[in-house]
Amino acid sequence: MxxxxxxxxxxxxxxxxxxxxxxxxxxxxTVDFGPVIQxxxxxxxxxxxxxxxxxxxxxxxxxxxxxxxIDFCADAxxxxxxxxxxxxxxxPLPGVGD
Length: 98
Prior knowledge:
It is a single chain. This protein is of the alpha+beta class. The protein has one domain: NE0471-like N-terminal domain (NE0471 N-terminal domain-like, 2-Layer Sandwich), CATH 3.30.2020.10. 24% of the residues lie in helices and 29% in strands. It has a three-stranded antiparallel sheet with strand order 1-2-3. It has a three-stranded antiparallel sheet with strand order 4-5-6. Strand 1 and strand 2 form a beta hairpin. The N and C termini lie close together (8 Å).
């Protein structure tokens, strides 16, 4: 559960297909986009590093966007990182399950 809307301030693409995101509250997460890209569909162009590496926050910080009108919601990315951390046994991010 989200306690508030998440705003992305910084996006740092990392090889092979990860994003390190910094939110407005200072939290930093890393999201593996490999499974998303492998799923195909609209995310297929992100398999090209030249496209993937152009990730940036949208003008309001509510999503990560790429050329070609590809985007991914800031809240969904934050929740995915939380689920990944739980699966790996990491402590929960603040604001989850409060």
